[in-house]
Amino acid sequence: MQRYILTEYEDASPETQAVYDDYMRMTGDSSVPIWMKSLGHSSALARAYWERAKGTLFSGSLPLPLKEMIVFAVSAKHGARYCSACHAQSVLGLDKALEFQDLSNFVHAEAAFTLPPYYEHVVEFANKVVADPNQVEDADFEALMDEGFSREEICEIIAVIDLASMFNIYTSSLKMDLDPNYRAIL
């Protein structure tokens, strides 16, 4: 059963078209992804989800590749097929040192693949937050601070984890189909 309806650009209200236009302008994409089209029936919802994603991913002090890796890892941990595929593609587009098979090995705990140190400590922290945010200890913060992250950046990491969780719930509950340019990793 299809659990959602897509609102294509030409069928969208002017307010929703403005959200779609902002998305395409900001990301450089020439089309709107399925997750956004599934919200297109409500310009308020489409704008709210887009503003949250835009504000979390495209502002702040952390680099976009690290944020995309966090969203990918959190999505994989949650078993979120749509988000893990979407953000695997983003990671691979931003970090040419990684290949699809690397991310697949990471997700499936195959081979001896470990993430580059740049990502490893943050992903470990993200996995702990996803497992139980109430169990995050001062030592977890201190470990990230020892890696050079400020308290503000750690709060930004948590905001990215929260964003991923929100989108994971939305896309997974709807059993969202993958966009044609996404490759399933789960």
TrEMBL record:
Domain Carboxymuconolactone decarboxylase-like: 45-91
InterPro entries in the cross-refs: AhpD-like (IPR029032), CMD-like (IPR003779)
Domain of life: Bacteria
A molecular function (GO) term: peroxiredoxin activity
Record's protein name: Carboxymuconolactone decarboxylase-like domain-containing protein
Originating organism: Thiorhodococcus drewsii AZ1
Upper taxonomic lineage: Bacteria, Pseudomonadati, Pseudomonadota, Gammaproteobacteria, Chromatiales
